[in-house]
Amino acid sequence: MSLEEPSTPKLDTGETLEGVDYDALESLLGEYAIGRESHVNAEAFIVRPDEVQAALELLRDEAGFDHCSCVTAQEYEDRYESIYHLRKYDDPTQEVGVVVPTTKDDPVSESANEVYRTADWHEREAYDLVGIEYDDHPDLRRILLPETWQGHPLSLDYDQEQPQVVEFAEHANPLREDHAADAQSDTMFLNIGPHHPATHGVLHLKTTLDGETVADVESDIGYLHRCEEQICQNGTYRHQIMPYPDRWDYISAGILNEWAYARAAEDMADIDVPEYAQVIRTMSAEMCRIASHMLAVATFALDIYGDFTAIFMYAMRDREVMQNLLEDLTGQRLMFNYLRLGGVAWDLPEPREEFFEQTRDFLDELPGKLEEFHDMITSNEIFQLRCVNTGVLDPETAKSYGATGPVARGSGVDYDIRRDDPYGYYDELDWDVVTEDGCDNYSRVLVRMREVEESAKIIEQCVDLLEEWPEDERNIQSNVPRTLKPDADTEIYRSVEGAKGELGIYMRADGTDKPARFKIRSPCFSNLQTLPEMSQGEYIPDLIASLGSLDIVLGEVDR
To answer: Which GO-annotated molecular functions does the record name (predicted)?
Structure first.
């Protein structure tokens, strides 16, 4: 594909996908759209690298695509390419892609940061791993690898054998020059992490203090980067990729992670999933959500006022019960590897009645346990003083950064993939999306605790269905070819509602049994970007509370 010609023919006039009139969008973009592609999930418009901001502004302001969910960068034999995956917070089934090709000898594209703040980190990652440069980017530095790193690991000519030298650079106060003439200045540079329990993993917060308040904070990530995307690109669709999603958010969201890959691969290869297997997937995914939220509440309370003996241990006690159920179902406690393309690995454990009884016992005891948590946490005066009106993130800022999950819903953003872009068995069940309007640390905790109640409702309905399911109709897998080879240049972006937000997968096929490009859209990656917005002007303890309220897992941030 050249920069002047579209890679695929245009659709017939008036043809739409998922309710989007792409011809109207093409007319809106006018001369900015120099071509058009068909992806499995949406149409995509090709835009010149020097007209990115203008095109994105039109799609955001005139067409309502206010959610830049992901930015994918990749290299072809003849060009580089950035893809901006746009959706609407009000209706994520309405999607459109913006494809920005650049030449091999001059891989420079206009930055989308002025339109979507979430593009800041996404474009830095594209520069770091693929090698595309973005004009007018406010801080185009490597984000996962050291600045001294040679080459770009996802580029086609990357030499893995070349030596690497990582230099040590002394940390300097970035506000030093601003206050050099101010005799009363009291700024200080403070390292928080990377080896500190309050950073929830190997996260380094470069914090600048002005007196006792936070003047600036920069998240230094990449300590846990494991080349997960490259590993998946080296694995086969059918067998070798599925074990890896468990290792992104390795805390307890394994099946949620597996489902993100399964949904993308199944839609790309047009694979059906039996209804019975969909119910099992839905039940097990909500079990993972409860386990994840239990740990989030436990560690957050530990961050806020150091209560290990009561709150942390109470939450871990209840989480262990759910982990026992998941172990009975999958055979593993964390790295489940339970989903298969076209279904699940095996049926419910025998005797089924015992599994159902244990699940119902947990659900029956859950309301009383949640009441204990509210007594010890949300009703606690210290907790309220630390969380109410701290870490404030207004709805529009949350949207601009691409925040999703409890972080967005705690700011009143009514967005949940399970309801808004239904998959599995969710649209057949009775449950509610939880939102809070406080926009602070307290609201994000309330959302997670209330979501545990909604997950319990979903699990109970799934158990009722599974108990009554006719034995001769318990199909756990559809007939899937042993080797999957989607047509070359088939592209798709699909997502699920993970415990921490929108977990998406982009894949491009090249006609072989392995993806040519595999991109992971981590909710933690986008949510962590909001930390400076929540923390500037507040105290260090508020910064720690805000970080804890994001419920990040660095394995998913770094991938």
So the answer is: NAD binding; NADH dehydrogenase (ubiquinone) activity; oxidoreductase activity, acting on NAD(P)H; quinone binding
